[in-house]
Structure of Cryptochrome DASH:
Amino acid sequence: MAIFLCTTLPFLPLTTSFNSSKSTLSSILTNTTARYHFSTIAMNSFTTTTSASSSSMQYVPEQDSNEMERVANLTFQRYTSNSTKRSGKGTAIVWFRNDLRVLDNEALYKAWLSSQTLLPVYCVDPRLFATTYHFGFQKTGALRAQFVLECLADLRKNLMNRGLNLLIQLGKPEDIIPSLAKAYGAHTVYAQKETCSEELNVERSVSRCLQQVGVSSDESAGDARTSNSDPKLQFVWGTTMYHRDDLPFDVTCLPDVYTQFRKTVEAKCAVRSSIKLPSSLGPSPPIEDWGCLPSLEQLGLCSQNVSKGMKFVGGETAGLSRIYDYFWKKDLIKVYKETRNGMLGSDYSTKFSPWLASGSLSPRLIHDEVKRYENERQANSSTYWVLFELIWRDYFRFLSVKYGNLLFHIGIDCSKSLMPLMFFSVLA
Ligand SMILES: *[C@@H]1O[C@H](CO)[C@@H](O)[C@H](O)[C@H]1NC(C)=O
Ligand SMILES: *[C@@H]1O[C@H](CO)[C@@H](O)[C@H](O)[C@H]1NC(C)=O
Ligand SMILES: *[C@@H]1O[C@H](CO)[C@@H](O)[C@H](O)[C@H]1NC(C)=O
Ligand SMILES: *[C@@H]1O[C@H](CO)[C@@H](O)[C@H](O)[C@H]1NC(C)=O
Ligand SMILES: *[C@@H]1O[C@H](CO)[C@@H](O)[C@H](O)[C@H]1NC(C)=O
Ligand SMILES: *[C@@H]1O[C@H](CO)[C@@H](O)[C@H](O)[C@H]1NC(C)=O
């Protein structure tokens, strides 16, 4: 969970300057001289502390693919239940976004419940591989793209184990989703709700285009709906540990101080348990060509070998294996609070960030596993601290709902105090 280093910032001697308004990171980011100085300090301190391990590369998680699959299968079993009865009609689509997982995926679950036939889709959106509007930075580098491709391959495999598949299409969701909805007569498209502007723009475009493709009654087989009804677009909350609907305040009234937020949610809400899916989610509509994963070259990227540091393996199977590794096999969660700000190797902290960011791990499932560890082995402030950091993660997600694009502005009152943290989340 190093993504939110929230208390001490171990490798940067800049911590003290956060206290003075003159050298907040906001000003550092706008001041070339200071920025140069800043990155020099950061780099020097980084290379010194990592030199010991600079010659080796570690896979995270460490298991080979067969062992990962074995571990993931056990976890899939633990979070599977056949007791829910499917009551829906017709066809539903589940449009995967940053929720590339099977377990505790509410959009997938609701789509399954509401239908007789389920079509899972992922759109490889070229905009994610373009450059930023300002400065022309690449939005997705080769390593992250590789990670996402691994997530997709793994998602497809895990869906196939449950009687489905994953349709992979290259193009914009607003072009692809409505035409699939029309072709397969889907009554509803389920997707995870996002909160930031680019994702919200895509949501609006998909919604607009869906309204233009009425599904006529003879296309929606078995569904007694009137002709030319539009397929509905239903968003499902799924990115945080505490559910947005369970917050004891409207998210627009979110406290501007983290501790206040944490104390309130800890006192007044419970984390929902993760959703248990049935072992079979099929069938899906008959499709001849489920689509291939693009290569990095097709995405305009050159493959990059990792020869130093850590190589994160993409996908839910790997994410679940990392939980197993860190919690159960190596028993490291019991010292997490003491080691989490270290820099050497993969074991000082959970390293869940890449799987959380792609949605291949659900924070609620991590919560369930922490509780299981606390019941079966031991609970202390280290085990709690993993949840503490997940609450930080929730907090930033809810802040993005409250503040929208202001979150990314420099020098706005509300974001001033957040800038350092936002910035370090990128470094970690
Ligand atoms: C922050 O600044 C105040 C006043 O300038 C000072 O009293 C306090 O000790 C400083 N805190 C830290 C952690 O440096
Ligand atoms: C930029 O940073 C340098 C080094 O910290 C500092 O001396 C200078 O006053 C800063 N300039 C501005 C405009 O803040
Ligand atoms: C994991 O489960 C799938 C089916 O659900 C099975 O095909 C596969 O062989 C299992 N893998 C291992 C290593 O047990
Ligand atoms: C669910 O049903 C499948 C097939 O009927 C069975 O193999 C599996 O063990 C069941 N799982 C649970 C958790 O009951
Ligand atoms: C990456 O490593 C593989 C296998 O070691 C090698 O074949 C390939 O040329 C390397 N690619 C780059 C870009 O270095
Ligand atoms: C938690 O318990 C473990 C094992 O008993 C111990 O080594 C560790 O120091 C404890 N951590 C904290 C933060 O209490």
The CA atoms of residues 108 and 115 lie 11 Å apart.
